[in-house]
């Protein structure tokens, strides 16, 4: 390698490294946005899940209260009494 081409080779390597860094920074920004989007979506789904669980508990409680309010067959008096 001659001394005249050494600076050119060094400059080419430097440009290649700068290009790789720019590409990696772009991908990091893209991944960061994807993670942020997924985090927002997960938070929304967790809220929906909590609401659905509460609705199921409320419905189950309403069914239990409805069952308690209705007389059961064993609570009724036979017709001959």
Please bin the fraction of helical residues.
over 70%
**Low-confidence parts lasting 5 or more residues at pLDDT below 50?**
none
Can you count the beta strands?
Answer: 0
In round numbers, the mean pLDDT is 89
Give the quaternary arrangement of the chains.
Answer: single chain
Tell me the span between the first and last alpha carbons: 117 Å
Helix-and-strand structural type: mainly alpha
Please, how many helices? 1
* Biggest β-sheet description: none
Shape: rod-shaped
Please provide the ordered H/E string of secondary-structure elements. H
Please state roughly what percent of the residues sit in beta strands, choosing from under 5%, 5-15%, 15-25%, 25-35%, 35-45% or over 45%. Answer: under 5%
Radius of gyration, whole Å = 35 Å
Give a structural overview.
There is one protein chain. By secondary structure, the chain is mainly α. Helices cover 79% and strands 0% of the residues. The chain has 1 helix and no strands. It has one helix at 6-69. The radius of gyration is 35 Å and the shape is rod-shaped. The chain starts with 5 loop residues before the first helix and ends in a 12-residue tail after the last helix. The model has no long low-confidence stretch (mean pLDDT 89).
